[in-house]
Amino acid sequence: MEHVIFPPRMYNFLWTIRNSPLEKKILDCGAGGNYPPLAIFHQHGFETHGIDISDKQIEKATTFGQKHGIDLNIVKGNMCKLEYRDESFSYVFSQNSIFHLIKADTTSAMMEMKRVLRKEGFMYVNFLSVNDQGCGAGEKAGPGEWIAPEHGEPTLHSFYEDNEPDSFFDNMDILLKTKSSMEFENGEYRMVHIEYIAQKK
Amino acid sequence: MEHVIFPPRMYNFLWTIRNSPLEKKILDCGAGGNYPPLAIFHQHGFETHGIDISDKQIEKATTFGQKHGIDLNIVKGNMCKLEYRDESFSYVFSQNSIFHLIKADTTSAMMEMKRVLRKEGFMYVNFLSVNDQGCGAGEKAGPGEWIAPEHGEPTLHSFYEDNEPDSFFDNMDILLKTKSSMEFENGEYRMVHIEYIAQKK
Q1: Is A16 helix (H, G, I), strand (E, B) or coil?
Q2: Residues of B contacting chain A (CB within 8 angstroms)
Q3: Which of A33, A70, A151, B161 is most open to solvent, judged by the fewest CB atoms within 10 Å of its CB?
Q4: Element (H or E) spanning A57, and its range?
Q5: Strand, coil or helix: A162
Q6: What is the percentage of chain B residues whose pLDDT exceeds 90?
């Protein structure tokens, strides 16, 4: 595992919680894929739990785990209805996932993620900005919701105004909020994310 | 070294160059400090070279290296006048450093970093945006240049408009350009960086 390089998005969270005294127990919502973020947390001594709604993404993460000899404990699940007790985790993490839900379901998912997070626990979640290249492309599904092909399949993305997701973090302190605009190929393509790291009161 | 957590800024670069076939030889300009980025590159098999103008920052990096049993090869030097031959490195990296120079010196430093980079080599460098909290605070030293106390000492910072640093990358392809705004403490403090990853033609 030592020399695997991961996409950079999760490191802000690891850095923020590096001195936290809480039990190292984390839930990742949308945990699958070729580079499962839980692998980094496992490497840093966390007890990892993950859910993903997609069998294909779980399979990719399982392949990664087998290759590196680690069990990340990722099971099928729906982030709008988590099968965990209240305050089960010190850390809840969700990266590049919640914006695949329509906004009504996002509210449910955020409530669920807060429910399973212990008091003083930390959460990471990122959203897509209305400034993202994808906003306005494809078929409109609702306000700020667009369906367009991704990897050959029609895929929903929800896009947010700069302060729109703030309201999801009631009863939490927002420790870090980042808006990052990434341009690739000399400005031809632009991704814009809004990230939050928050602590439950 | 395995469980050291670093500030997140360098990971975009590691991810971008992960499949590069070039010799793993890197120069970091402004390489000192408590968390020397070269440690991550060392961990990933790079031959590391670093310079820093500050004895104090070099000492901090040396302490880190001793603690973790690695020699990062960081020496005293000025990024405006590099003591290396043309095209000596496959990778040149400079994080949170070049914006401590006045803009005239920044032009020199960028020319020097490009000079010592081989053809098809990769460069990472970040700047401060005019949207950063620090822009306009303290004493004005020149257009976009401000001197204000930092860690108790008067410190110069240069701030850039969104596309102002583009001109430094002539004869290079800009592969990734990121503008990231980070808010801390519920919006009380705001850092805004503009990062570039570019490849020499």
Answers
A1: helix
A2: 2-3, 5-8, 11-12, 14-15, 18, 43-45, 173-187
A3: A151
A4: helix A55-68
A5: coil
A6: 85
**Bridging pattern class, strands A139-142 and A172-184:** unpaired
Best mutation target, B43, B183, B188, to test chain A (most A CBs within 10 A): B183
* Chain A residues touching B182 at Cβ < 8 A: 176-178
Average pLDDT over residues B113-142: 97
Q: Which of B2, B5, B177 has its CB closest to that of A2? A: B2
In the numeric block, the tokens 């020319």 are attached to: B111
For residue B5, pLDDT over 80 is answered with no
Contact B6 A15 (CB under 8 A): yes
Nearest to residue A143, comparing CAs of A168, A170, A125, A161? A161
Judge whether residue B96 has pLDDT over 60: yes
The distance of Cα A125 from the centroid of its chain, to the nearest Å, equals 5
pTM metric for this prediction: 0.90
**What's the length of chain A?**
201
Q: What does the alpha-carbon distance between residue B124 and residue B135 come to, in Å, rounded to a whole number?
A: 23
The low-confidence residues of chain A, meaning pLDDT below 70, are 1-5, 7, 185-186
Q: Using the 8-state DSSP alphabet, how is residue A110 labeled? A: H
Tokens in use for B40? 């991550």
Neighbouring C-beta atoms of residue A42, cutoff 10 Å: 20
Sort out which chain B residues have CB atoms less than 8 A from A11's CB and list them: 5-8, 11
HSE of B98, CA atoms in CB hemisphere, 13 A: 32
Structure tokens given for A52: 């993903």
Q: What is the ipTM metric for this complex?
A: 0.84
Q: Do B182 and A178 meet the contact criterion of CB atoms below 8 Å apart?
A: yes
SS (H, E, C) chain B: CCCCCCCHHHHHHHHHCCCCCCCCEEEEECCCCCCCCHHHHHHCCCEEEEEECCHHHHHHHHHHHHHHCCCCCEEECCCCCCCCCCCCEEEEEECCCHHHCCHHHHHHHHHHHHHCEEEEEEEEEEEEECCCCCCCCCEEEECCEEEEEECCEEEEEEEECCCHHHHHHCCEEEEEEEEEEEEECCCCEEEEEEEEEEEEC
